[in-house]
Every structure is written in structure tokens, then in C-alpha cells.
């Protein structure tokens, strides 16, 4: 049922086109895998005090962002305001989440001897 | 005290004596799950196999019911395992707990026998009361439903009253609250309606809110206890993180119910709500990754029980891939329209249940076996360590193989049957006859044999590990410090 | 060390008590929203509404037609076409559909088939089975479905040898099951299953053909 919607039309979702199936599955999996890689490298860089790992962490985030955009395109998310908002939410949320969780880790472990060292290193 | 290396209940406290009973039945039911899964798998390839004797529907029902019950038994066992230690007092109603164990086990046996021997009934209410409710995962007849609720309430009483009498810790608080939700939600699946939309609407309350909310939090409590006891993490930190986890899991999980309300007659706004919370769902996983790395950097990963530690690490990965990657691949409604009700769901379900729940129960059973034999050595240089390592490998290789094979069949099915064929009868069988599908099912079967071999090895290992071992376990300093 | 102690107190956003409250508030908030939505959803999916029609809909033709506005197929209730030629009151229809639903539960249909996409994947989805072109013509459909349900193991299913077993379904149960399936096909499922090609239900006389015919449904399908 391939039909391009005009901009006036408001539908809740526009189903994925057959040709984009693989792209959707692959990019969705990439979103999660890059997200984990980003979180992993980010945390690793901080916990071991290796700033050189940080660019790699952000490279992983770029991979995540690219995957989100590809997914958004393939799943027709940019055709509606609501789903575009979800895409933006993912982009911002996944960028910020590891930072926030890291701060929580440091904050909650304050008082533990090793954790103090980490917070001082930073 | 019995000699090291021999199974002796003298090594266990009251709650733990009860726990090992639950674990024993759990592993037996795990075996039943594997057996009936294999029979159902063979029927995909050889449709005449046991046709009219043990049909696919019966095997499949036993396969998924055995799973729900063995995980429940495993969870109940794990809670009894930690109960006296965590509360600092003996279980209040141990006799009642024992009675509940026997009643529950007997009920399971009766239900299984009825499934096998009676199978189906006439289209009347009495069939639903006595034989089989015919609703996926909660097929147990109504009399058994009532029995389950009574058993869970007795279990709840035991847990809550024991904690009230002893220490009511943060972990205890979350656990008690979670058990109330667990018992209460089951009631949502216990009534009949001719309206299939209404039926499935409430049915998801049980299935989703159990599996994707209350079970997750229950596992969180068990892991929190494990962190305090075995890794020496300070209780205050662990409990803070348990609350964070509850906030993240319930915050994304409760309304995540929406992703099951896309196509069952429920209103259109669920498409938006389900999509929104699907996008949020990876956040707890990201939190887990960051926190795990943080902890690994600060605590020496020393464990006196290598198999249990390995299964806990497997849990982290399994949860991440099963729930995270496999879930997100087909959760947006734009694609779920084609994948809903295909082998995609089977692929996701296999990996997610195994990764998130089977692993943690197996880890607890290893912990139990160690103590049961008098805290024997279960670290490096263990006699016969190949058994647990090969069991771990075969179960994972088998599960990953099955999941990948089902992924390929699901992909083919979503295209051929759903997108092109439009889900008609003809389109369905066209997709089932497709070479990708048939080959996928063959590979699933081969992987299933690997999984079966892994299970046999696991069962053998659990019965023999630590036998005749004379070295005592090197307990982490934390245990002494915490006590 | 004393410095860290003061720090512990200042980090309110990382404190145990803060997250305990957060956990409670987030859980409670989610539950309240869910309950609010549940009230509305239950109202909308109660039989007799727009999304889930009354059981007496089995007295009418049910079709599955592409809707331009919603960009997917939707169930369309057509002219009177009573099931088995007998028009039923709302109570009679409900009793019949209920009998059918009970049969699908007692016979464990859901562990081979999917209904509304939920169940097992060993046999076709039943959401729109009433409209499946496999039943041939709309005149023979009802009886064919009943015959199939009563003696499925003898019928030709497919090329791969997979068959439905004989579940001892009586004629009464079979007719009720057909009523349940016809009623289920009238539920608005937001376009699931997608791209479905329904059985031709148009009337033989061209003049009487309403707009909502099978041809109209198939027209926008261009893969």
C-alpha cells in the first residue's frame, strides 16, 4: 500500500515500506548496540582515568545518532511532529543518560574509599 | 555438621531447607520445558509426528507453562534462600511454607496430567474451570488459578511477617511491595468475557506487568542481596541503586504496556504511548552498563562460586540482548504491524526469558548447591569444572542458535506473509513453505539439541558439583564484615 | 574523611531517601496514568462501541476496506447478511459468540493459532479468518467453515503437510465458533493485518454493489 502522504494528512503512524524492512531492523539493533558501546567506553574512560578513550565513546554516540536518523527515515518517523519529537528525545536522551548515570554512580558511592579517588581524579 | 562435600540439610537454615525443595522442582520443570519445546520443534519439520496423540498445541502449552512455573518456583526458592539471612530471624511460618510447597507441586502435577490426558473439553465454562483456560501462558484452569493465588498469598505472608519480625531492610521493602503487585496482577487474568479485545487487554496486565515489571524488580532485589553479601558493596549504596532501578523499570515498564495495545482493538493513542515508552526502554539498560563498569572498576571481582558468577554475568548480557536489542528491533508500531504474531516474537521471547530469568535462577541454584554441601570450594581448580563450563556454553550456543534461526524465519514471515501476502491463509502457508523458513526451522532444531545436551549436563553438574570436595570455600571478607 | 561526610549530606540527588521517594512517586504516577487510561480504554473496547461492535453485528456483512484518511484498512459494516440465514437479537448473538469464544478457549486454539496476533505461530492468524479468500465464495463460506472445524484432519490444508487435528468439535460448537470469528473480524485493529485481501463479498447484481466492495479494498494495493 505504498502511498506518499501529503503534509496536510495526519495519520498516527505510517507503516514501514517493504523495501525498508532490513534497514529498520538493522538500524534499530545498531541504536542499542552503539548505545551500549557509548555507555561502556564512556564509563571505562572515566573509571580508569583514560581520557583518550573519550573520543571513541563519542564516536560510538555518533554511530548511535546516525542509526537513530536512519531508523527515523526508514520507519517514516519524520512525517509527523510527534514521531520526530521521539527521534529528538532518543538523540538527546541517549547522549545525556550515561553522563547522568555516571554522576549518580559517583554521588551514591561518595564515602566509599575508592569512589572518593575517582571523584577527585575528575 | 556433616562432612564437606556431602549434601546435608544441616548446612542450611530453615528457609534454605525449603528453598532447595523449590529449586529441585524448578530444575525438573526446566527439563519438562526443554522436552516439550523439542517435541513442538520437531512438529514444525515433521507435522505427522505425534499427530492426534500429543498435538503441537499441547506441547506448546506445556512448553510455555513449564517455563512460567519453573521460573516462579526458582524465584520463590531464591527468596526463601535469602529470607533468614536478610531478615536476621527464622522464617515465621515455615510449616505453612512447606505445606504450600507440597500443595503447589501437587497442583502442578495434576494440571500437567490433565493437559496430557484430557487436553481439551467441550465449549463450556466447566472446561475453563477444570481442564484448560486456553489463554497463552495462563492456561492453568481456574481452580488452579485460585490455588496459585492462595499459595502466593501464603508466600507473601511468610516473607512480609518474617521481615517484620526481624530486620525490615530496604531490599525487604521493595520485595514485599513487589510481591503484593505480583499476586494482585494475577487476578486480572482470572475472569471470563466473550469479548476478545477485553480479554487480551487484561491478559496483558498479567503477562506484561509480570514479566516486564514485577519479575524484573524481583530479580533486582535478588541481585542487590547478592551484591551486598558476595561483593561487599555497602548496603546503603546497593539500596539506593535498587530504588533507582525501581524508578527506571517501573517508570518505563508500567506504561510500556502500551506496546502490546497496538493491534487488539484498543484505541489509537496506544500507538503513540507504546512508541514513546519503547524509546525509553533502553535507558535502564544503559544505566546498568555504566554502573556495572563503575563497580567493576572499584571492586575486585572475587567470587567463591565461579559457576554462579558466570551465570550472573550471563544474565547481564542475556538481558541486554534479549530485552534490549531483540526488543527494540521490532517494537515501534511502524514495523510491529508486520512482525506482530510471527516468529519474530518467538525469537525475542526465547532470548529474553532465558537471558533475563533462567540465568539468574540457575545462578541461585549453584549458590544453593555450594552451601548445601557445606560451603565447599567452587572456584578455580575444581574437579570436574568442565561440566559447568560446557553446560553454560551449550545452553548459550543452543539458545543463540535458536534465536538467530527464529529471527531469520521471522524476517521472512514478516515480508512474505505479512507485507506482501497480507496475512491470508494462503500467504501464511506460502511463508511457512519458503526455503528460508524451512532451513531456519532445521537450524532451530539443531540448536535445540545443543540446548538439550546443555540441560542434561547442567542437571548432572548440579547433582555432582562439589561432591567429595575437601577444600572449604574461600568466603569473601564482606560476608564476615556484613554479619 | 570528614570532608566526604559533609559531601554525603549535600548530595541530596544521590541520597537513598531521595531515590526512595522518586521510586514511589514514579511508580504511583505511572499507575495513576495507567488507571486513567484503562478507564477510557475499557469504555472504548466494550462491545457495542465504535471500535468493538455489538455482537449482533454478525447479522450484517463485514468487510475490511482501505480508508484513505487513516491510511490503512478498517472494518466496514455492510448490509444485512445474517449468519446461517437467521437474524439474531442482541442477546442471542451474544450467547452464540460467547459459546464460540468458550469453544476457542476450551479447544486451546491459541496454542497453534494467533487471535488478534497473540498466541502461537503454528497455524494462520484468525483475526480476519472470516474474510479469508480461501473459503471460496461468500455463499458457501459458512458451511465450509463448519465442515472444516468438525473434520479438519481430512481437509486439504497446504503443501507442507501441516494439519489441524480433530478436536471433537460438535456442530453447535462449530457454528458458534464461526459466529465468534465473524464478530472478531469486525473489531477495529488499527490496520492489523496489513494489506489483507478479503474474500469477494460483492452482490452478483452490479447495480446493488455498494462502494465498500472487495475491489475497492484491493485497488490501492500496489507493492
Description:
- The complex is a heterotrimer of chains A (122), B (483) and C (223).
- Chain A has helices at residues 21-47, 54-74, 81-109, 113-121.
- Chain A contains four helices and no strands.
- Chain A has 122 residues and is mostly helical.
- By secondary structure, chain B is an all-alpha fold.
- The model of chain B is unreliable at 477-483 (pLDDT under 50).
- Chain C is built from six helices and four strands, in the order H-H-E-E-H-E-E-H-H-H.
- In chain C, 39% of the residues lie in helices and 9% in strands.
- Chain C has a two-stranded antiparallel ribbon with strand order 1-2. In chain C, strands 3-4 form a two-stranded antiparallel sheet.
- At the B-C interface, helix 1, helix 2, helix 4, helix 7 and helix 8 of B face helix 2, helix 3, strand 3, strand 4 and helix 5 of C.
List the helices and strands and how they pair.
The complex is a heterotrimer of chains A (122), B (483) and C (223).
Chain A: H1 21-47, H2 54-74, H3 81-109, H4 113-121
Helix pairs in contact in A: 1-2, 1-3, 2-3
Chain B: H1 14-45, H2 56-87, H3 94-117, H4 125-130, H5 142-165, H6 170-186, H7 196-230, H8 235-253, H9 269-280, H10 282-298, H11 306-329, H12 333-339, H13 343-372, H14 385-420, H15 425-433, H16 435-464, H17 477-482
Chain C: H1 2-10, H2 16-45, E1 60-67, E2 72-80, H3 90-106, E3 114-115, E4 118-119, H4 138-150, H5 171-184, H6 214-218
Antiparallel strand pairs in C: 1-2, 3-4
Helix pairs in contact in C: 3-5, 4-5
Amino acid at each position: 500500500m505504498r502511498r506518499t502522504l501529503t503534509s496536510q494528512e495526519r495519520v498516527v503512524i505510517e507503516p514501514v515500506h517493504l523495501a525498508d524492512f532490513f534497514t529498520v531492523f538493522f538500524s534499530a539493533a545498531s541504536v542499542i548496540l552503539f548505545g551500549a558501546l557509548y555507555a561502556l567506553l564512556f564509563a571505562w574512560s572515566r573509571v580508569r582515568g583514560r581520557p583518550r578513550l573519550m573520543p571513541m565513546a563519542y564516536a560510538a554516540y555518533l554511530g548511535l545518532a546516525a542509526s537513530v536518523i536512519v531508523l527515523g527515515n526508514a520507519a517514516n518517523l519524520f512525517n509527523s511532529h510527534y514521531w520526530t519529537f521521539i527521534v529528538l528525545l532518543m538523540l538527546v536522551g541517549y547522549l545525556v543518560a550515561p553522563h547522568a548515570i555516571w554522576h549518580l554512580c559517583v554521588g551514591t558511592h561518595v564515602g566509599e574509599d575508592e569512589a572518593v579517588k575517582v571523584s577527585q581524579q575528575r | 555438621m556433616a562432612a564437606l562435600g556431602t549434601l546435608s540439610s544441616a548446612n542450611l537454615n530453615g528457609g534454605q531447607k525449603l528453598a532447595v525443595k523449590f529449586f529441585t522442582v524448578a530444575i525438573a520443570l526446566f527439563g519438562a520445558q526443554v522436552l516439550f519445546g523439542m517435541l513442538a520443534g520437531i512438529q514444525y519439520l515433521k507435522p505427522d509426528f505425534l499427530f492426534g496423540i500429543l498435538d503441537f498445541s499441547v506441547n506448546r502449552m506445556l512448553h510455555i507453562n513449564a517455563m512460567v512455573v519453573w521460573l516462579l518456583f526458582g524465584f520463590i526458592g531464591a527468596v526463601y534462600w535469602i529470607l533468614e539471612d536478610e531478615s536476621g530471624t527464622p522464617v515465621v511460618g515455615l510449616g505453612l511454607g512447606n505445606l504450600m510447597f507440597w500443595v503447589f507441586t501437587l497442583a502442578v502435577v495434576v494440571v500437567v496430567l490433565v493437559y496430557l490426558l484430557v487436553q481439551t473439553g467441550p465449549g463450556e465454562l466447566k472446561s475453563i474451570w477444570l481442564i484448560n483456560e486456553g489463554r497463552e501462558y495462563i492456561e492453568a484452569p481456574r481452580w488452579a488459578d485460585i490455588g496459585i493465588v492462595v499459595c502466593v498469598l501464603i508466600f507473601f505472608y511468610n516473607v512480609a511477617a518474617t521481615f517484620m519480625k526481624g530486620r525490615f531492610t530496604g531490599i525487604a521493602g521493595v520485595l514485599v511491595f513487589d510481591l503484593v503487585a505480583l499476586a494482585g496482577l494475577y487476578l486480572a487474568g482470572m475472569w471470563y468475557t466473550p469479548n476478545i479485545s477485553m480479554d487480551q487487554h487484561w491478559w496483558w496486565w498479567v503477562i506484561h506487568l509480570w514479566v516486564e515489571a514485577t519479575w524484573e524488580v524481583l530479580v533486582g532485589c535478588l541481585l542487590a542481596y547478592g551484591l551486598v553479601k558476595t561483593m561487599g558493596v555497602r548496603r546503603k549504596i546497593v539500596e539506593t541503586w535498587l530504588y533507582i532501578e525501581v524508578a527506571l523499570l517501573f517508570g518505563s515498564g508500567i506504561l510500556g504496556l502500551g506496546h502490546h495495545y497496538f493491534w487488539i482493538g484498543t484505541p489509537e493513542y496506544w500507538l503513540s504511548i507504546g512508541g514513546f515508552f519503547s524509546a525509553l526502554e533502553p535507558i535502564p539498560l544503559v544505566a546498568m552498563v555504566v554502573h556495572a563498569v563503575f563497580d567493576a572498576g572499584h571492586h575486585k571481582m572475587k567470587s567463591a562460586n565461579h559457576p554462579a558468577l558466570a551465570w550472573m554475568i550471563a544474565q547481564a548480557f542475556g538481558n541486554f540482548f534479549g530485552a534490549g536489542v531483540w526488543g527494540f528491533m521490532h517494537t515501534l508500531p511502524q514495523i510491529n504491524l508486520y512482525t506482530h504474531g510471527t516468529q519474530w516474537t518467538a525469537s525475542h521471547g526465547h532470548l529474553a526469558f532465558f537471558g533475563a530469568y533462567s540465568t539468574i535462577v540457575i545462578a541461585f541454584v549453584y549458590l544453593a548447591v555450594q552451601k548445601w554441601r557445606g560451603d565447599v570450594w567452587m572456584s578455580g581448580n575444581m574437579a570436574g569444572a568442565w561440566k559447568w563450563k560446557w553446560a553454560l556454553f551449550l545452553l548459550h550456543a543452543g539458545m543463540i542458535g535458536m534465536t538467530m534461526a527464529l529471527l531469520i524465519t521471522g524476517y521472512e514471515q514478516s515480508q512474505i506473509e505479512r507485507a506482501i501476502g497480507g496475512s491470508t491463509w494462503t500467504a501464511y502457508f506460502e511463508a511457512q513453505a519458503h526455503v528460508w523458513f524451512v532451513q531456519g526451522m532445521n537450524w532451530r532444531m539443531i540448536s535445540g539439541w545443543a540446548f538439550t545436551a546443555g540441560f542434561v549436563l547442567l542437571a548432572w553438574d548440579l547433582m555432582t558439583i562439589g561432591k567429595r570436595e575437601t577444600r572449604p570455600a574461600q568466603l569473601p571478607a564482606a560476608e564476615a564484615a556484613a554479619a | 574523611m570528614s570532608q566526604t561526610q559533609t559531601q554525603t549530606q549535600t548530595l541530596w540527588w544521590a541520597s537513598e531517601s531521595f531515590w526512595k521517594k522518586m521510586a514511589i512517586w514514579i511508580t504511583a504516577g505511572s499507575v495513576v496514568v495507567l488507571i486513567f487510561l484503562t478507564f477510557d480504554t475499557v469504555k472504548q473496547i466494550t462491545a457495542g462501541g465504535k471500535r468493538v461492535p455489538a455482537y449482533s453485528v454478525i447479522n450484517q456483512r463485514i468487510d475490511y476496506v482501505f480508508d484513505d484518511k487513516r491510511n490503512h484498512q478498517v472494518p466496514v459494516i455492510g448490509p444485512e447478511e445474517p449468519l446461517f440465514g437467521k437474524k439474531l437479537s442482541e442477546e442471542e448473538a451474544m450467547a452464540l459468540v460467547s459459546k464460540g469464544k468458550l469453544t476457542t478457549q476450551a479447544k486451546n486454539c491459541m496454542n497453534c493459532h494467533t487471535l488478534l496476533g497473540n498466541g502461537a505461530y503454528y497455524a494462520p492468524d484468525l483475526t480476519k479468518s472470516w474474510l479469508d479468500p480461501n473459503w471460496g465464495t461468500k455463499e458457501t463460506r459458512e458451511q465450509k467453515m463448519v465442515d472444516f472445524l468438525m473434520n479438519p484432519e481430512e481437509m486439504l490444508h497446504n503443501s507442507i503437510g501441516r494439519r489441524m487435528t480433530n478436536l471433537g468439535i460438535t456442530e453447535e460448537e462449530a457454528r458458534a465458533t464461526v459466529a465468534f470469528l465473524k464478530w472478531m473480524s469486525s473489531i477495529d485493529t488499527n490496520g492489523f493485518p496489513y494489506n489483507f485481501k478479503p474474500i469477494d463479498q460483492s452482490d452478483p447484481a452490479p447495480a446493488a454493489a455498494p462502494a465498500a466492495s472487495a475491489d475497492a479494498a484491493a485497488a490501492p494495493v500496489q507493492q
